[in-house]
Amino acid sequence: MIFVLYREHCERKKNFGRTEVIDNTLNPDFVRKFVLDYFFEEKQNLRFDVYNVDSRSSNISKHDFLGQTFCTLGEIIGSTGSRLEKTLSGIPGKKCGAIILTAEELSNCRDIATMQLCANKLDKKDFFGKSDPFLVFYRSNEDGTFTISKGSLYHDFIGEFTTSYRELSRGQSQFNVYEVLNPKKKGKKKKYINSGTVTLLSFKVESEYTFVDFIRNPSQPTSLHYMNPYQMNTYAMALKAVGEIIQDYDSDKLFPAYGFGAKLPPDGKISHAFPLNSDTENPNCVGIEGVLEAYFQSLRTVQLYGPTNFAPVINQVARSAADVTDGSQYFVLLMITDGVISDMVQTKEAVVNAASLPMSVIIVGVGPAEFDAMEELDGDEVRVSFRGRIAERDIVQHASPCCCLSDVWGLCCHFWEKFSFD
């Protein structure tokens, strides 16, 4: 038995690879792993085909088709424990069994090495001075060779040395003093020793949490949604800090609160604008404390899921703002997010449409993600546009990150100063 993985490439399914053959079993446990680049902001479609191998032919059409299933890479990563079970289909009137897919992040991707080095007695290169040295790092290719960038060839070469991650990780010692050698000088001068030395002063390795860590179950400390019994998580801190300031401008202190990006019970339907209190008829929460309570309760019932789509929740508030035509109300949408905007085109359209309505948007970014797109929505320099339509007003204000009360106050003061609420 064998299964074949296809992934979407340029709107076509491309054969990505196949597993080894497992003989004489209906419950194969395939060993081969497929290494895929994961992009949270993209929908990466996958297809898995399972075959029974009856011959040594490499032509997959020569084998018996047993079933197939479709999913996205995000579905696998976003599932509990990054483990997804899918039913196989493809043969009418026949149960084809199931396939279990698991994903794991390559552990070596998160290590960041910080080192300090110094050099001694380097060769003199400048005619009127000594040298202006700098160090360039190259990683070896699989065959042991090195690819040298063209830019480095325009400088005066002093010398080179090689080492390994394992050697560097030992830290400062007599083993981490390297002779800088110039092959040309070594070949011409019999008494040549070296062109100086480089010494490792310190070496430190730290693990950088990746986006996958931050979208995992809130019960894990690496998640930005982690419910620590002793202190509020980053989301709650931002919500409380900003919310307690802007709530003073609301008369009834009833706040409709929505989440965007989760699978909802009982059927696991994905939503990008679901009420935190689970009440679709009345999403209002009483005060910021009520919003926080609904947020924590929601974490216990939904499964966090990507991508990060802004347009649905902006349009949700815009529909409410469009119902107010007498100027008696103004709507402020506070969005707290840790992800890259996945529907930027639709979000721009939503912002342009909402700019003519009595509403504004505050976006607070938390976590380590890139927030360049949100800066683009904050039209301080260039007004947001969509298909030639320019927003009537600049209705978006962005801050990242926003966990300090003084920063929050500055953000909100700027926000109230920026817009006139008559």
UniProtKB/TrEMBL annotation:
GO terms for biological process: cellular response to calcium ion. GO terms for molecular function: calcium-dependent phospholipid binding. Pfam families: C2, Copine. The keyword Phosphoprotein does not apply. Keywords: Repeat. SUPFAM superfamilies: C2 domain (Calcium/lipid-binding domain, CaLB) (SSF49562), vWA-like (SSF53300). Residues 1-88 form the C2 domain. The keyword Transport does not apply. InterPro entries: C2_dom, C2_domain_sf, C2B_Copine, Copine, Copine_C, VWF_A, vWFA_dom_sf. PROSITE patterns: C2 (PS50004). Transmembrane segments: none annotated. One of its GO terms (cellular component) is plasma membrane. Belongs to the copine family. This is Copine family member 9. It comes from Scleropages formosus (Asian bonytongue). The lineage of its organism: Eukaryota, Metazoa, Chordata, Craniata, Vertebrata. The gene is CPNE9.
